[in-house]
Amino acid sequence: MTNIPDNVESTVELLTRGSYIADRSLGTAVHLALQLNRPLFLEGEAGVGKTEIAKVLADTLGRKLVRLQCYEGLDVASAVYEWNYAAQMIEIRMAEAEGIEDRDQLGTDIFSDRFLVKRPLLQALEPSLDGPPVLLIDELDRTDEPFEAYLLEVLSDFQITIPEIGTVAAQEPPIVVITSNRTREIHDALKRRCFYYWVDYPDADREMEILKLKAPQVDVKLSRQVVQFVQRLREMDLFKLPGIAETIDWASALNQLDVIELTPEAIDDTLGVLLKYQDDIAQIRGSEAALILDQIKNEVAAAQLAAG
């Protein structure tokens, strides 16, 4: 188990050891969340690396990762706990067969820890020899508002109330990372309990660093062209802009096809790796892709001429 970093620089280095290239502002947000035991609320477009931060923290700190993947209709039984009703019924039948008539004692027995099925939120409050786990509440915006309200107790006091047992509190608070793709607004009451950070698309230099780290097999020239092309796409009015994950996938796919330099044909053949909606692909494929590629090559040539 690695100790929590004691300054921003160490936090950025910790993320870098986990192959996550973070700027100082993100490193500061992560550092404060770790030091002050506050949940870290990360918003941003899909594919910019929000979920990866939780995974990297768990890996580099040597902590267990407990992931709650959110979806519409998520309830307490799936997120927090439920009772093993089948096992409880067997216990009741056995008690009846043995002639046990103490109903109060039987009620205490069947609503005990051995019949409790612990889901991610309750698991995250349990003590561990490796230290408090990293709790990832992923894509919170997919859930309903009542579930948000339920989270307030968990995020404020790191405790959960189970009516049949009482309150279960964490001995040490878990490291909590919450992500949202902002398909809807999250209530202010929840945000107030967190440190907030907007994870944006990286600039060209940082995306190039990420690509070198995540796809080192790709030639540097091709990587640079891929980054420049993706950066241009993010300036356009597309239904879904490509994220970092798509950049890495596209560069790896081109390398797999033995492409050493972007061409209009290579772009058209692989746009489905980079863009995920047919309208976006139709808008870029053909003349638009060739135009963007020509602009990139002209800019490179002009830069080389100016430098030479």
Summarize the structure.
The chain is α/β, with parallel strands linked by helices. It has helices spanning 8-17, 24-36, 50-61, 76-79, 85-97, 103-110, 120-123, 145-157, 188-191, 204-214, 220-233, 244-256, 264-274, 278-284, 287-307, and strands spanning 40-43, 65-69, 81-83, 116-118, 134-138, 159-162, 166-169, 175-180, 195-198.
Would you kindly provide a written description of the structure presented here, covering whatever features stand out?
The protein is of the alpha/beta class and 308 residues long. The chain folds into 3 domains: 8-77 and 119-198, Rossmann fold (3-Layer(aba) Sandwich); 81-117, no CATH class; 204-307. Helices cover 51% and strands 12% of the residues. The protein contains 15 helices and 9 strands. It has helices at residues 8-17, 24-36, 50-61, 76-79, 85-97, 103-110, 120-123, 145-157, 188-191, 204-214, 220-233, 244-256, 264-274, 278-284, 287-307, and strands spanning 40-43, 65-69, 81-83, 116-118, 134-138, 159-162, 166-169, 175-180, 195-198. Strands 2-5-8-1-9 form a 5-stranded parallel beta sheet. Helix 1 (8-17) packs across helix 2, helix 10 crosses helix 11 (220-233) and helix 10 packs across helix 12. The longest helix has 21 residues, at 287-307. The N and C termini lie far apart (51 Å). The model has no long low-confidence stretch (mean pLDDT 91).
